[in-house]
Specification:
Helix content of chain C: over 70%
Distance between the termini of chain B: 34 Å
Shape of chain B: globular
Radius of gyration of chain C: 21 Å
Oligomer: heterotrimer
Number of strands of chain B: 10
Radius of gyration of chain B: 18 Å
Largest sheet of chain C: none
Strand order of the largest sheet of chain B: 6-7-8-3-9-10
Structural class of chain C: mainly alpha
Chains: A mainly alpha (242), B alpha/beta (244), C mainly alpha (227)
Strand content of chain C: under 5%
Structural class of chain B: alpha/beta
Number of helices of chain C: 9
């Protein structure tokens, strides 16, 4: 099978001001932006949900449980399409959304979709982290006279989050991978640019290898970051809970 | 100081505590013993409201633990508790373990809390470990810190839930020594323990529980001295445990 | 601002089309799971073996698959593999290889995830079991066959089934290769009739119902089978 690899294609002019390499870099930037924004939203919502899930209050725990079931049983792509096509139609302020530029709409839909989707998974991680701590920790903090919320804030959550750094790393990596789905609604992230490149340059192998390598690099960067965080927050002498 | 009146508790269909009544006067040291599953740990956890009860009531220094109007947080800050598995907070240093309750619950200033914490650490003989984390200490050291942590809140009474059961044999004495000293200073104490030597040394009364009921509640000398007058179950327990 | 939902969309003609799409989705799911388990088991054994090159290959395979988005893999297979296969097998350019390339893509991808579950399942059986079996005089094959794998399988079956449910959801991604699965068909009907909102919500509902009940069944199985 003869195929001449032409790696110089990346330096060719795509338009008057950009090379194809610029396109890929721009795609990478979009992916990083989507990933980070979604991750922040997911952490915020997911942590709150995780605490609700373990609370004694039946309403809180039930609501969080329902949220997780809803977002885990619908495919990500379907959720994305619903955020992009359906929500502007049904939401009262929807017309304002429809008037925004397409790129903004795509970015917003992508970030909100990915954020809410990942929040469900983070909720389960936080919940498992909290329940892996022995009851004794909660009892000890309450016995001192700390209120329930003080107990969560100063004793339970600091340890729970340290325990779940490894699974959270996996989720963080997944966020960047899942972000590729946003290319289906037209967002020009890394995957989207990859596809465009194939269309414009008719050089599928180089384009895909480049994009794949960049996703792998992104992965490696995330894992190194999380490993650094894990080292920083490690508790001396603590091997595992229970 | 502590009054337990006709307390009953069930987990679903299983009766854990059946009509328990007893008192602990100020300055008294009461030891609670009995076989596994007799409900003794549960009983002691009802005193500061960690375990809710279905029937009866509990009064600590006149305050009803079970009343919805009671500020549980405030009540708990006045009663110290030491757990079988120490339960120090692993992510905080020893000093921080001792000051967390003081600062967040009692509202003391950081300097005041730290000073008190270090004084108590010295009292249990662990001043040099102040900046370490619990995971770096041995079991016996952790338990002594746990006692210091409970004392840092200036409690009116101390509850001990099998404080030496999870320790290596070599470390039991260092913890018991601290507890004996505490008793001799006049602290009101209720201890769930198997350490009969400790009971003989400083206890005023011994309570024996089995299957959720209080079978014996007698002065120490009666309990150990006059074994024939004891209930059959207590006799059985004593004969097994004292000939270890 | 009440949105008028058009229930007439749920008519026999549409249902037939949606049904065909669902068959495609299920076909891909089943193939992906079965091939994934088989290839995944082999990968797991390779990873656990003491032959360095095999173990290294399996590790690399799994790491790469877990680093690339599934969307990319599907796009890659959609754009590149048909040409490759046509050249290799001398097929005509008109042959519709979308289904084949999707099946291959999913199988290869799923195998990586399955192999991790299987590996964890095997390693999760306590070493004490291995020692006890060996102490009885069993050789490696007997130990694996009679003691380790039965226990490992009971622990990993629920996880493999959950992975299957995830795969079922992921089949919606064949949208990028214009292969008409359930979601693709639903969206097409929506576009054609100008009722994307209704059809998207309907698709979401169907997926939710199927996956919710499927995961309930798996959870019950997990409780019964847990060692």
């Amino acid at each position: 099978m003869s195929y001449l690899f032409h790696w110089g294609v990346f330096l060719e002019q795509a338009s008057s001001s950009e090379t194809y390499l610029d396109w890929i870099i721009s795609g990478l930037k979009v992916t990083i932006a989507v990933g980070l924004c979604s991750w922040i939203i997911a952490l915020a919502i997911g942590s709150v949900l995780g605490v609700m899930r373990t609370s004694q209050n039946k309403w809180a725990s039930g609501f969080a449980g329902a949220y997780v079931e809803l977002f885990r049983n619908i495919p990500l792509l379907v959720q994305l399409f619903i955020w992009y096509f359906v929500v502007p139609e049904l939401l009262p302020g929807g017309d304002a959304i429809k008037k925004m530029s397409p790129v903004t709409q795509q970015f917003l839909a992508g970030v909100i979709c990915l954020g809410t989707f990942t929040a469900a998974r983070i909720c389960e991680q936080v919940r498992s982290g909290i329940s892996s701590l022995s009851h004794g920790q909660r009892n000890a903090s309450l016995a001192l006279g700390l209120t329930s919320s003080q107990s969560y804030r100063y004793v339970i959550l600091p340890m729970a989050f340290r325990i779940i750094v490894p699974p959270l790393t996996t989720e963080f990596v997944n966020v960047f991978q899942n972000s590729a789905v946003a290319s289906t609604i037209g967002l020009l992230d890394l995957a989207g640019q990859g596809r465009q490149l194939v269309d414009y340059t008719a050089r599928p192998y180089e384009s895909f290898i480049a994009v794949t390598l960049l996703y792998c690099l992104l992965n490696v960067a995330v894992m190194m970051l999380m490993r650094w965080i894990e080292r920083r927050v490690r508790v001396p002498g603590f091997i595992g809970s229970k | 100081m502590i009054e337990i009146n006709n307390v009953s508790k069930a987990y679903g269909a299983f009766q854990v505590l059946i009509d328990c009544t007893t008192q602990v006067a100020k300055g008294e040291v009461v030891v609670v013993c009995g076989p596994s599953g007799s409900g003794k740990s549960t009983l002691i956890k009802t005193i500061n409201g960690l375990e809710p009860i279905q029937k009866g009531d509990i009064l600590v220094n006149g305050t009803n633990v079970c009343s919805p109007k009671t500020n549980l947080s405030k009540l708990r800050s006045k009663v110290g508790m030491v757990f079988q598995h120490f339960e120090l907070f692993p992510h905080l240093t020893i000093t921080e373990n001792l000051t967390l309750g003081q600062i967040k619950v009692l509202g003391r200033g950081k300097d005041e809390a730290t000073e008190k914490g270090l004084k108590l650490l010295e009292r249990v003989g662990l001043k040099t470990q102040a900046d370490k984390h619990p995971g770096q200490l041995s079991g016996g050291q952790q338990q002594r810190v746990a006692i210091a942590r409970a004392l840092s809140m200036d409690p009116v009474a101390m509850l001990f839930d099998e404080p030496t059961s999870a320790l290596d044999p070599e470390m039991i004495n260092e913890v018991l020594d601290v507890m004996v000293e505490l008793a001799r200073e006049g602290m009101t104490m209720m201890c769930v323990t198997h350490e009969m030597g400790f009971a003989k040394k400083v206890a005023h009364r011994v309570i024996f529980m089995d299957e959720g009921k209080i079978l014996e509640d007698t002065p120490k000398d009666e309990f150990f001295g006059n074994v024939d007058q004891r209930t059959d179950r207590a006799k059985q327990f004593l004969s097994r445990i004292l000939h270890h | 601002m009440a949105y008028e939902f058009d229930v007439s969309l749920i008519n026999p003609a549409n249902l037939k089309v949606l049904g065909e799409g669902m068959v495609v989705s299920l076909e891909i799911t089943l193939t992906g799971v079965l091939v994934g388990i088989v290839w995944g088991s082999i990968l797991a054994m390779m990873r656990l073996s003491s032959i360095r090159p095999l173990s290294w290959f399996a590790e690399a395979y799994v790491t790469v698959c877990r680093s690339i988005p599934l969307v990319m893999v599907l796009l890659w297979f959609f754009l590149i593999v048909p040409q490759l296969l046509q050249k290799t097998f001398n097929l005509s350019a008109a042959t519709d290889l979308r289904m084949t390339s999707s099946l291959i893509a999913f199988s290869l991808f799923e195998a990586a995830y399955c192999s991790e579950i299987i590996r964890a399942g095997i390693q999760g059986v306590s070493r004490g079991q291995l020692f006890a079996a060996q102490a009885l005089g069993m050789h490696y094959g007997q130990v694996m066959h009679l003691v380790i794998l039965p226990q490992a399988f009971r622990n990993m079956l629920p996880l493999l089934l959950m992975q299957g449910i995830i795969l079922f959801q992921d089949t919606s991604l064949v949208y990028v290769s214009a292969l008409a699965d359930f979601f693709g068909r639903a969206y097409d009907i929506g576009e054609r009739d100008g009722r994307t909102v209704d059809m998207l919500l309907f698709a979401g509902l169907v997926y939710f119902v199927i996956c919710f009940f499927a995961s309930r069944v798996v959870k019950r199985l997990q409780k019964k089978a847990f060692i």
